[in-house]
Amino acid sequence: MLLRRIRYFQAVVQCGSFTEAAEECHISQSAISQQIAALETELGVKLMERHNRRFSLTPSGEYFHRKSLVLTAELEQMCRETVRLSRQDAAQFTIGYLRNCEGPELQRAIAKFAGRYPDITIQTESRSHEGLYDMMRFGHADIVLNDQRRAFSDEYVNLVLAEGRGCVEVSANSPLAQLESVDIHDLRNAACILVAVGEERESEEEYYRSIVGFHGDFLFADSLDEARLLVLSNRGVMPLDEVGTPAERQSVPIVRIPLCRNGKRLTRNYCAFWKATHPGEYVRAFAEILREQFLEK
C-alpha cells in the first residue's frame, strides 16, 4: 500500500495536477487526493501545500520526491533482475556498434526498445568494422550497426539506415581548418588518427591506407574522446562519417571539414546487419525502431 501511495504522489508531482494524475493512474481525483493525504499521515509530515487547484511541495516533499524516484527505480531494477535470474531461458539481446559511433539515433532506439521489452536483458558491445563483422559471423551479436565495406551478402539482412558523409576533424589551430573541404590526396603526409584497439588496429590501418587513401603515419586511440585529444594536440587528422543527426558536442576548438576524392565528397552506407536465419522476433523489432530513429528529422 505504501508503494502504491508513493507512485500516486510521484504521478501528481510529474503531472503538476491532481486531475491529470488521477486520469493517468485510472482512479478518481478524490481517491488520489485521499491517497496523498494517507501518505502524509503515515509519514507524519506535510508533503504538499494546497493552493485551491494548485499545489507546491514543502521542503520535506521535495526531499521525499527526489529520494522516492531513486528508490522506485532501484526497486524496478531489482524485480527485473530477480525475474531474469529465476529464468534460465531469459531473453538476452546483444547489439554491436562502431567504436567511433556518435549521434542520438542508437541511444534513442535502445531506450525505446528497452521500454517496449522491459524483460529483455540488453547488452552492447563496441568494435571496429571487422570486429563487428566477426561478432555477427560467429553469432556473438543479434544485430550490429556498422559501415558498409563489403558487397551485401544474402546470408545477412542488410538494412541501409543512412548515408555517411566523409569528413576529417582537425584542430582549429591547424592551417587545414581554413579550408571549406579537403581532398584525400592533400592529406598524404598527415597523420591519420583512428579509434581502434588491439588487433583491430591492423585491419583499420589497412582499410584507411589501401581503400580510403591515407598514406602518412597512423595514430590510434581507445576512444573517441582520446582521439579528439590527439586532434587538439595537432598530432593529426581524424576521419569520421557524419551519419544521421549531428551529435551535440561540447564547445572545443575542433573543426570538421568535408573529405573529398577528386572533388567529390566521400560517402558510404551505414546499415543494420543480422543473420537472415536469425530466429528471434526482437531483432526485427529493434531494427524497425532503429530505422525510425534515422528517418526522424
Structural commentary:
Helix 1 crosses helix 3 (29-43). The chain has helices at 2-15, 18-25, 29-43, 59-86, 105-116, 129-137, 200-212, 224-232, 281-295, and strands spanning 48-51, 54-57, 92-98, 121-127, 143-147, 156-171, 182-183, 192-195, 218-221, 238-242, 254-261, 264-265, 267-275. The strands form 3 sheets. Strands 3, 4, 5, 6, 7, 10, 11, 12 and 13 form a 9-stranded mixed β-sheet that branches. A two-stranded antiparallel sheet has the order 1-2. It has 297 residues and is an alpha/beta fold. The chain starts with a helix and ends with a helix. 41% of the residues lie in helices and 26% in strands. Helix 7 links the parallel strand 8 (192-195) and strand 9 (218-221).
SSE diagram, text form:
Blueprint: H1 2-15, H2 18-25, H3 29-43, E1 48-51, E2 54-57, H4 59-86, E3 92-98, H5 105-116, E4 121-127, H6 129-137, E5 143-147, E6 156-171, E7 182-183, E8 192-195, H7 200-212, E9 218-221, H8 224-232, E10 238-242, E11 254-261, E12 264-265, E13 267-275, H9 281-295
Parallel strand pairs: 3-4, 3-5, 7-11, 8-9
Antiparallel strand pairs: 1-2, 5-13, 6-10, 6-11, 6-13, 11-12
Any descriptors?
nine-stranded mixed sheet, alpha/beta, two-stranded antiparallel ribbon, 41% helix, 13 strands, 297 residues, 9 helices, single chain
